[in-house]
Design a protein that fits this description.
Elements lengths: L14 E5 L26 E6 L5 E13 L22 E10 L9 E9 L7 E7 L2 H8 L1 E3 L2 E3 L2 H11 L3 H8 L5
Antiparallel strand pairs: 1-2, 2-3, 3-4, 4-5, 5-6, 7-8
């Protein structure tokens, strides 16, 4: 049994063939945001293809601030697929992407957080979720899970959030002042 492709090679992470150099903006006064010198390496604005829970394509025009996955190469069980209740990050894993979107009149959001519980186990389906928000703190909160009633930031979420904090001053503040580990 071969392991699943690395997430960067899957369609959920692949940019579409169309790239954009200009963006239509709403009629609003332009403001100059302070950019920390270490945060000047902003990723290119382009379209990113995702899939929603109904299986429909969702195209997001934005800058990828951070992404990570919990996928592993090797299986930890003798069967071809992990049975229900058995953890195996080669059979079931978690992907997260954090994007900065330019002013989106329809969604009214500055960020998109895409998370997806993925699986290769027959009979199981991927479980994608989108959070559109203008709040850096809500970006952090959308990645928090509860275990035994205690808030926790999963490793893949923490990695993606750390990457995003290196590229966005507001996310850096929310990341550095979060109340979960």
């Amino acid at each position: 049994m071969t392991s699943p492709a690395h997430p960067e090679e899957t369609s959920a992470y692949a940019p579409s063939a169309t790239t954009h150099t200009t963006v239509k903006r709403a009629a609003a006064p332009e403001r100059e945001a302070y950019v920390h010198p270490a945060r000047l390496d902003q990723p290119a604005l382009r379209e990113w293809d995702f899939t929603d829970a109904a299986g429909d394509a969702v195209v997001v025009l934005g800058r990828m601030l951070g992404r990570a996955s919990s996928v592993k190469d090797g299986h930890n069980h003798p069967e071809e697929y992990a049975e229900k209740g058995v953890r195996c990050s080669a059979c079931r894993w978690f992907d997260v992407s954090i994007l900065a979107v330019d002013e989106d009149d329809e969604a009214g959001a500055d960020y998109v957080v895409y998370t997806c519980g993925r699986t290769i186990v027959p009979g199981e389906v991927d479980r994608p979720r989108f959070v559109w928000t203008s709040s850096p703190r809500e970006v952090v909160e959308s990645l928090v899970v509860r275990q035994d009633g205690q808030p926790k930031l999963p490793v893949a979420s923490a990695r993606a959030l750390a990457q995003a904090a290196d590229r966005d001053e507001d996310l850096a503040d929310a990341y550095e002042n979060r109340l979960v580990a």
